[in-house]
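Hello, quick one for you while I still have it in my head. Could you read through the record and tell me how the tokens relate to the sequence? No rush at all, and the record is pasted right below.
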Amino acid sequence: MSDSSFTATLLDDHCVSGDTVASHCTTIDIESDLLGRLAGVKIVVTDVPAGLADLVPLARTLESRSSADAINQASSAGDNVPCGKGCGACCSYLIPLSAPEALRMGREIGPLSESSDPATARTLTAAAGRILQGWPESPFAQTDPDDDGEACDIEAVGRWYASLDLPCPFLGQGAECRIYDKRPLACREHAVLGSAAHCDGFSSERGNRLETPLNVLDALGQLTADLEQTEVQAVMMPLVPFWYEENHHRALQSWPGPELVSRFLDCLADTAAQTTGVSEAA
């Protein structure tokens, strides 16, 4: 299993002395211009083995920063972005998690039979039952973002999921997100312009969707596929605890921490390049 002492921290978010970095850490520069305002930022990585789930805190930080930059730019241009803590307009839509996120969340949630929050455990179990009962094929579908036909299937799945009218199991009263600091990347990157009425979390139509500079979710999925030699995989939020029971062994795999972070950044640059290419072609 990966070493619990692994960390990957943005240098400007946490002061790390030069001696400390030299003794047991590696400093990695974000060099790709494709990563926008993150270019030039340094990441301090501890020199210990790390697994896929260990990358998730860094991924969350990068996605939150990317989304915040996009929202600030939109606001400066005079656009209204209603999204933020306390808005639950998109919280009944399909929320896909990459395998690393599902491994991390499965560990954070723990076994439902031992949950300290029985109400959430019951909600997760009920939601999973409705999903598995209504979906004719395995919901742990492999997805290829380069396949246009597959993209249509993903949209269909999103609309089918929305028809179930399943609020997020972690949504409390007053649209309070009980896992806000640990919410999935898909939640962090989703924002709309105008009003919450424009929020559509399952359609491939961009509409008033605010484009963020990075697609961290896709990068994590691609990295996992490259490392494990599999297809890109996504997991529906309510199914995470049950998926984790069958896949927790994947958290035992580890790689040198600095190498894992470097490969993740390469995937991030690749997905950014693909997004830029699609935008230019359009």
Q: What stands out?
A: Confidence is low (pLDDT under 50) at residues 14-20, 138-146, 148-152, 278-282. Residues 257-281 form the longest helix (25 residues). The CA atoms of residues 133 and 261 lie 39 Å apart. The two ends are 44 Å apart (CA to CA).
